Amino acid sequence: MENNTVQKVLDLINQNIEISILIGTNHSIDDMAAALSLFLAIQQMNKKVLVATPRDPLVGVSFLVGIDKVKKELISEDGDLTVSFPYNEGEVEKVSYKIEKGNLNIVIKAGESGLSFSEADVRYKRGGGVSSLIFIIGTPRLKDLEHLFNMEALRGVTVVNIDNKVENQGFGDIVLVSPQFSSVSEQVASLIVSSGIDMDNDMAQNLFDGIASETENFQKQSTSYLAFEIAGILMRKNINRTRIMEQISPRAFVDPVFQPSQSFPQSIRQQPLPQQDLHQPQLRHQQYEPIQQLIQDNKGRKNSQQQVKSPPDDWLTPKIYKGSTEL
Q: Which parts of 16-128 fold into alpha helices (H)?
């Protein structure tokens, strides 16, 4: 990531007190891992930061560090507390407060007609002002944020768009969208490392899991060289390299099972391979018996041929011609 861009993002973080990180509904492990790592990094800078997604996080990302901090609303834990109740004109004469024994008591003085609501009607809502800086991670379209992104409410807010998807619409004041990265976690890791933020084990673990998940354990053809370089940096933080494989089905990281070509005859493709039990000596003996029998048969045939072709005993003794001289 270019130093100029990193410095712009770092300046924005330093200039803003309240910061939000948003992820779309259809998020992947990579998207959530990148968002949570950025959340931990900004939190380390003593900023008020929250991370949110429109709906409950998917079950597949529940193992990531910081997943319990993800919200469904842009509501800060340390924001304002609003107490609300039904109101009819004229039934409230005055609202005041007083402090007693360390408690703040809000007093609703009823009018002449009395109060029409009960204690069950009182609602409490926690929330603060809108964040002045918003990071949108791994989300190609603003509509994927559903109710979290309201153009009117967020008018004047600085938006940083970080993504690697080709279909990203390129929205935001700072657009860090590049399909050359094989994962969003690579981009966030590069941003954290380049900015000089001290990366701890939790950040490194999330980012490594995000990269490994998106690249299918670094075996995907689209895996960039940066994935390997950044993985080397993250591994220095004493991460668990097998955690992501324990969370995802092993089938996601194995080579495809060989399937016989359809050109093979059906009888051959369905015929089971013979199995040999090495614990049964009798089977091993039967395997070699035909060879031994063939050797014995060959020896028998050779002996037989030698007997047939052997010359008579007097073949080499001198011979005396015995003939008749009679004419």
A: 29-44
